[in-house]
Task: structure prediction
Amino acid sequence: MGELRLMKGNEAIAEAFIREGVDAYYGYPITPQSEVMEYLTAERPEKRTGMVVLQAESELAAINMVYGAACTGKKVVTSSSSPGISLMQEGISYIAGSEVPCVLLNVVRGGPGLGDIQPAQSDYFQSVKGGGHGDYRQIVLAPSSVQDMYDHVALAFELAFKYRILVLIQSDGLIGQMMEKVEIGEQKKRLSDKEIKEKYDSWALTGRTPGREHNIVTSLELDQAKQEQFNIHLQNKYAEIAEKEVLYEEMEVEDADYILVAYGSSSRICRKTVNLAREKGLKVGLLRPITLWPFPEKRIAELAKRVKGMLSVEMSAGQMVEDVKLAVNGKIKVEHFGRYGGMIHTPEEVLEALETKIIGG
Amino acid sequence: MTEEIIIAGFGGQGVLSLGKILAYSAIMQNQEVSWMPSYGPEMRGGTANVTVILSDERISSPVLRKFDTAIILNQQSMDKFEEAVKPGGLLLYDNNGIIHPPTRKDINIYLVEAAKEAAKMGSAKTFNMVVLGAYLKIKPLVELGNVIKGLKKSLPERHHKLIPMNEKAILQGMEIVKEEHLV
Result:
């Protein structure tokens, strides 16, 4: 067993960046995720592993630094919160169009606009439907505990390099700011330039290799027929990810009459709702998507064959509920419940909503 | 065992660090913990509160409406959280600045005059440890040895010289806590 610490979600993920052997972090401060860069700066990762930590002049600069550095096959990461992530969308689309692997953290806060600094889950559409332009996808992981914040870093980089894709870790102010017990893993070594050249020489900008053509990393292709072929290649890659990389967790679904669908901090609140409902004799279960894209649509379709109704619970006005409805395809009743704008629903409020909107409705 | 606690008072009273030390102590004896602060602009000089959960099992919601224990350190928090104690639960408070003491008859109420005691000890900063001692006397969920280990983990090394004084404050809290009303 590794070392146990009491950490905030934001601190745990920052420690995980260092231990994962990340080469560079570029970011710009914004509440409720400022502890990420604060922690990194205090830990002096340039001494611990040689990792670069740089405060950029803006979110636009940060995402373009990520883009540039990631073109070289290095492990690169940035973090921000909702308004900052909106500013990064141009760079994110370019990264998708260039098939550059990297990792991004969004500690979501209440919106729209500058909104407030309290927890929210209202960036689901932006994360899973694409906030930038063009036919692209990104893998979206939704941690539900401080331990997940730590563990998802290794998973995110594994997926990013396996598919040459941007992986977004979508957290929120609640998981970022709360402290829990975390088991810290081993320090991984950063890859040397030679190791990076051996692994990624087929696409990365690793310097000249005798006998190979220049690698060009770009999102520009003015020949529309070639651009269509490139898009078909992207779609095939996304189809493979949707087939192979879906992750979810279940609680008490075996005998359930009703299912709550919730991710991240809402899934934590719903675990308590399941317990409260079971105490009242209601057979309620929970499905927690770990990957928001790819979405566990097959599993939801299977469950829809044998349960009576589903309540999608999200700290938003109702975003993920659209994907739950698509998966259920009209077979059973699906409704949304959630507080938003920075307010957090309690387990009791979720139970009330389940009783009025689904069971009694 | 699951214990769901709200600790509430003014910013600067050591509310958040009291929760943190309690959480660290529970980790020292292999329990699951969560520590969820209210955060935001209201923390600057205003009220501060933190929800701490200690459990032998995986913790579900870090956000709660009802609590097994409320540790209340100012009037605003009394107004807000007296009602949030589960029937049969515990309310522990310091009466410094309290105009309306708790009135519920279906919960256990204890008083700790921690502000007075800390002043007597000559160190206002040990206030929160007096409160912690009082709580641990009523509910000995973590062992004193683990609290000391927790203090060592949560305090930077340059402050380790303060640990004996904190330990003394905890023992003082255990000594002076008073029953006011039992169910």
Q: What stands out?
A: The first strand of chain A starts at residue 3 and ends at 8. Chain A has a mean pLDDT of 97. Chain A has two domains: 3-184, 248-359. Residues 248-359 of chain A form a domain with the Rossmann fold fold (CATH 3.40.50.920).
